[in-house]
Amino acid sequence: MSIEHYENFPVASWLCPPALRPAVTAIYHFARTADDLADEGEATTEQRQEALRAYRSDLHAVAAGIAPSTRWRAQVFEPLGTVFHAYRLPLRLLDDLLDAFEQDLVKTRYADRAELLDYCRRSANPVGRLLLHLYGIDDAAALRRSDAICTSLQLINFWQDMSRDGPVGRCYAPSPDLQRHGLTADDLLACQDDPAARALLRELSAWAEGLMREGAPLVHQLPGRAGWELRLVVQGGLRILERIRAMEFATLSARPHLGAQDLAPMLWHALRMTPARLARQAQHAEAA
After folding, report:
1. Which backbone phi and psi does 208 adopt, to 5 degrees?
2. How does DSSP classify residue 7?
3. Is 124 inside a domain boundary?
4. Model confidence over 8-32: pLDDT tens digits?
5. Which residue of 49, 233, 266, 270 is surrounded by the most CB atoms within 10 Å?
6. What is the rounded distance in angstroms from the CA atom of residue 113 to the CA atom of residue 3?
7. Which domain does 210 fall in, by range?
8. What is the model's pTM?
């Protein structure tokens, strides 16, 4: 599974403990399919809303031990049902993901950062919390760090995808940030790449990096291979930010992406994620 395909999901790679791979895969397919219902194809907004309502009904049926409809049964809800009951997954977190996908169908502007963070709380943070649940980790510090990482990944995806979101009418940059740089949402929707837009992206990227640095110490709270997988997730997000910096924040013109050449530096930085180094980096990001 590729982090490019569903950016907020730490993938069920070879680093994931084999016993948990079916559970991680089932949750992934639930989130991926819902995201596709909201975004892919030529369906109207009303048709997408209807599909997501039916999808939620199947989720609640599975949670209640009732057979879901046949539409997504084999690929999504049969494996999810097994995992849901075996691990007692929190239904609220799965519902939150669907809330976010439904919101994307009708909301294209954000009044402030708090409103955008509330969206991230439902669109991204449940993924991290579900994975922590699988590992039996539920202390407050771990949950805060997981939320910071997942929110950062979501924000990075927004700033990475500016050239894609504009043509479909979505602007995730909060209004006060736009105003501070003399911009409007329409400027971003038109993909007008100019010094003001690049200054905005520089500031928004720094916000995302600060959150990632804040959450990074979680890698030392996860056991064994899970901690190493999370290191690579963190470094993947930071690497995208490096790519954005390298192109001088011109993501209204082109979308940066990771390739095979990025793996070596990501591994190198992952190996160097000592507690002391992470603490220094977090302090530096906060000061910036």
Report:
1. -65, -40
2. T
3. yes
4. 444 445 567 788 889 999 999 999 9
5. 233
6. 25
7. 107-287
8. 0.92
